[in-house]
Amino acid sequence: MKHPIILISFAFLLLFCKSYQKENKSEITANPETYASTITAAELKDMLYTYASDEFEGRRTGEPGQKKAVEFLKNYYESNNISSPIAEGNYFQEIPEDYFKGDTKASENVVAYIKGSVKPDEVIVISAHLDHIGVSKNGDINNGADDDGSGTVAILEIAEAFKTAEKEGNGPKRSILFLHVTGEEIGLYGSRYYTDEDPIFPLANTVADLNIDMIGRVDPKHEGKGNYLYLIGSDKLSKELHKISEDINKKYFNLEFDYTYNDDKDPNRFYYRSDHYNFAKNNIPVIFYFNGTHADYHRPSDTPDKINYEFLETRSRLIFHTAWELANREERIKLD
């Protein structure tokens, strides 16, 4: 017969183990594939058909259609109980009219976040621009389904996946900022305002920016060749970030990563032409995800019916997995 003190001690040990497991559930049971699978082609399509509809009038910076777009984003975050880092119910980082050149009216970035459970002061930024080029002089609406409706709805689905994880006790260790910037099409104004004028989180605490600008289509080079992405900037400031990105892809997806536009001598200079650049110039490691240009680029024909939603789903899941790794690894990535 066992001594009663031993039995009591054993019972306490079991209770302690169960309690420890519960407190450290994210380290023991969290599987990112569970949450990545919540990012679906059907949901992406449903949102993009609204976001890139004629109702939003091409989302030109400061114009009524762009104001409808930011309300759409705000309502999404509120309905999913994803908080703002500014104040409760305030998802708009206001940018005054005098910040813009020309006759552009005042506009706003849209921001939401999930607070890190272990290192809340360290932040992963996932960005995309919410604006497009508006209505042509002949009255045609430039819906911008790929540019950058695709990146916008990808962020919304990624945010929902992280929120689902948080609800189950598997929230990210580092904070995740979902940053929808305005004024990209007229000069990267929204991202520059965030980095240079009003960084909501200190730039020194910003681990990386994953920037999504056009990930819903296939360019002529890759037609009929399966899923792919152009990656730009991943190795320019942190070789460790580049390796993580490669490893995540090989582990879960095995897409073709095309680094053509990452070449410093590439005449397109895409590295300098999207919102990640305002982070990179501040020595924050970046990855720019891009599907390349196509015949509908900056034309009224960039419509939701031409998006490859299966590709968009996989690409969005890839970015989620990369953000998950950056948010949950023990050490923040190193700057070269």
TrEMBL record:
Domain (Peptidase M28): residue spans on this chain: 109-321
Pfam families the record matches:
Peptidase_M28
**PANTHER family, per database record:** METALLOPEPTIDASE M28 FAMILY MEMBER, PEPTIDASE M28 DOMAIN-CONTAINING PROTEIN
Q: What is this protein called?
A: M28 family metallopeptidase
